[in-house]
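Title: [Solved] Glutamine--fructose-6-phosphate aminotransferase [isomerizing] 3D structure

Original question kept below for reference.
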Amino acid sequence: MCGIVAYVGPKDAAPILLEGLQRLEYRGYDSAGVVVSNKGLKMRKVKGRVADLAAVVPARFKGGLGIGHTRWATHGAPSDVNAHPHLSTDERIAVVHNGIIENADELRAKLEADGAVFLSETDTEVLSHLIARTVVEADSLEEAVRAALKRIVGTYGIAVIDAQRPGEVVVARNGSPIVLGIGEKEMFAASDVAALVRYTRQVVHLEDGELAVLKADGFSTFAGDARPTAKEPLTVDWDAGHYDTGGYEHYLLKEISEQPETVARTLRGRLDDRFHIAHLGGLNMDARETRSFRRVKIIGCGSAYYSGQIGAQLIEELARIPADAEPASEFRYRSPVVEPDTLYVAISQSGETYDTLAAVQELKRKGGRVLGIVNTVGSAIARECDGGVYLHAGPEVSVASTKAFTSTAVAFALLALHLGRVRDLSPADGRRICEGLRRLPGQIKEILALEPQIEELARKYADSPSMMFVGRVRGYPVAREGAQKLKEISYVHAEAYPASELKHGPLALIGPEMPTVAIVPDDELLDKNLTTLGEIRARGGRVLMVGHRTADPKLADDCVVVPRNETELDPILLSIPLQLLAYHAAVALGRDVDKPRNLAKSVTVE
Ligand code: AGP
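Solution (posted by the thread starter after getting help):
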């Protein structure tokens, strides 16, 4: 999952491409490159960050046409040679690509036999050689690109330029996102609006199989069979400022700190205090249809999946419908039995995660009814679903998801309230949940004020070789997400377990070197959780308890106390301190907090 950018217009492309790549770096950051067309192709590419690339792009890199790329390596280790763009042997064609070409080896062998000289180990390079082979005869670059793509098996978001056609860029999409930016006498294309909102907020999303030709004075789009397609521009809600750190040291801390506002935005206009229900205008279901579902199946990846587990509990508690969550790829490949009276809910912050998108497409092929809970407006998963809920949490730039995780859980509370109130959830319970939801932003503010205490605890535990996270029922998905956050940004090994499962194995790991973070809400399982703390302490384990009250020092070394809300909504608040704990542990360990190693923000490959 890489980031690609393209520009054609009166300005010099290089600075625009570099700034765009900077804004897309959360998509992949192991190598980068740009090429501009100016009496031939001029290219620079390096192993490293976009800043390293900017350092080697000379000011004289003139020309109003160019493409750029920031990489998350899949085929060929990060290196100057494997970085994109890739040129054809005659240096006429340049290609940047986001995705995976599954039949690259087979095509490469044929092209090498036909005299092509490959410089890199990448799958992408086959495209530049394939296009170069047809561009001479072809009437247009677009025709040559289409012919090449017909031979490709796999996913792609690509941008292509031809040294002999200095006025146009061809882009195409199949599985990986491409958005066009419509400017004044200039055109942009990118993997994400983040790279172009500085210049325009008028955008067009390409669908799978679509191809577009961009020229300074406009664009045209075509379906796979070359039929022209009509596109309605969308206006992006967010401006470039939303993609800045806003004075925070890291995007992650900014996004954690934004949560009182982002949760308020997710709730805005969706609570009805007269009937104590939730209004979710985007579901595209009337009450009769909403009542017809006998089961809810939630799918997503990583943190989206964990917020889905909180969602499943909320739906079972408030709507009394059987519900569960499953990793999207597991769901997709186990050939699930798709039932007409099951409501499927796909969760994705980016709306581009390939495993989730492919699972939604599989469900649609089997006639499933799929709702999306998505943050990125106009994204592929949002467009593929039958209806859904947008989070309105704003752009999430840091690779580790925080505000989107919290807003997803809030969106599930709204969905559960909606499903419940069209069934047997009483107006009194509806009121209780509505009021609880309205208290969340203020209570999150209270928890953020605990940052100094949590920072100190993070420093205390950061050098642990490994940490255990435990919770029961509502606390378990919170523990899973807490372990996920610590792992992905601090690289400290962490495991999450249902507290009840400890004595069935993991308790063997417990000792002074393995501290435990225990999620202990004041609910009907409080005593059981306190017993578990006793079992851990009895084996010399250190305990950091996150709950609604302090615990006896015999049971916990440290306690983080968060305000109480409604029992069903407490998991949303209990997750916040774990975000801060992971953040400060990563800072204490000197990690690259916003761009953790080996990861990327939007996983657009399988
Ligand atoms: C979370 O911090 C990670 N970035 C990752 O697990 C993420 O949640 C997962 O890749 C799903 O992404 P999505 O919500 O954009 O689909």
